[in-house]
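Private note to self, pasted from the team thread so I don't lose it. Backbone tokens:
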């Protein structure tokens, strides 16, 4: 996997743990070239597709709310904690 900071392919996993009730796996990675550290999350593709469908549903709700009330309720902000 490329380093998101310097695009080097020279990285290694330094920690790995199951998360979200063991449905996902997080890996802590470090770039050998620039020492940048970042986290990746492994998730079953079926679940990614469900999450995309859920996000699209929320987008549709957000758009409908905007159409009716002329403003955003911030549904996505609440869902994703932004
Ligand atoms: Zn790097």
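Design output:
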């Amino acid at each position: 996997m490329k380093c998101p900071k310097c695009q080097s392919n020279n990285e290694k996993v330094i920690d790995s743990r199951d998360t979200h009730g063991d449905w996902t796996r997080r890996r802590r990675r470090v770039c050998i070239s620039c020492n940048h550290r970042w986290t990746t999350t492994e998730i079953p593709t079926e679940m990614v597709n469900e999450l995309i469908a859920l996000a699209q549903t929320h987008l549709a709700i957000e758009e409908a709310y905007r159409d009716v009330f002329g403003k955003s309720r911030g549904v996505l902000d609440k869902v994703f904690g932004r």
